[in-house]
Amino acid sequence: MIAQHTKQLVELLLPAQCLVCALKSNNKLICHYCEKKILTPRSYCLHCALPLNKNADYCGDCLKKAYLFNHIHALGDYKKPLSQLIKQLKYQQQLVAGELLAYLLIKSVVSRYTKQQLSAFDYLLAVPLHPKKLQLRGFNQAQIICDRLSEQLNIPLLENCITRNKETIAQEGLSIKKRKMNLSNAFSYQKNSGQEIIGKSILVIDDVVTTGATINSLCKLLKDKEANMIIVFCISRTAIDKEIQS
Hints:
Helices cover 41% and strands 13% of the residues. With 246 residues, it is an alpha/beta fold. It has 2 domains: 1-37, no CATH class; 39-245, Rossmann fold, CATH 3.40.50.2020. The strands form 2 sheets. It has a 4-stranded parallel beta sheet, sandwiched between helices. Strands 3-4 form a two-stranded antiparallel sheet. Strand 5, helix 10 and strand 6 (230-237) form a beta-alpha-beta unit. The protein is globular and about 50 Å long.
């Protein structure tokens, strides 16, 4: 009887419509059609997850540059409906959108990686926000996604160990060179956190990766502290336009 009442209560709290198309979704956050469409395999660079228009394993950028992560896995490209859900989460405080994004990322991850591969990771780390931005927004969108992954994948969180000590300006509109300068020494390691990084394999979680400047800055710190393997999971990977490249 209690279980039945609990189920009914949960169903009342859940949206009756799909968050993507607004059609009936049987008390789920997303309907079957939209979920299948979002999870459809895409063409991407096997190293940085950059969208590719042709059947190639790696993009030209990865053939020229040395990134500090092993590779990036992205749920999809930065376009609707993912871009819309991300904006709803970050700028409209619709936390339910974060729950859906985490659900979809988990689905994507378990379809690509085996349990054995995932069990090799010691920690999950959400890309930190600067304290001022965290206070202004009220939450870290990457942390919301990271918390759900930790629960479902049974990988502990790397907490209070890495902080963002530099209040950077918004990355949007900046060139790659200016993004790198903006993020130079943006993160720091807290010695007394009680968690060790040396020799550990870490999954870094972010919502959007554009040039990779933020991720690379964070990975540099992790590598300086002798982390072993670093893989990045993100919701969306953005194609780099010519204005950003210049």
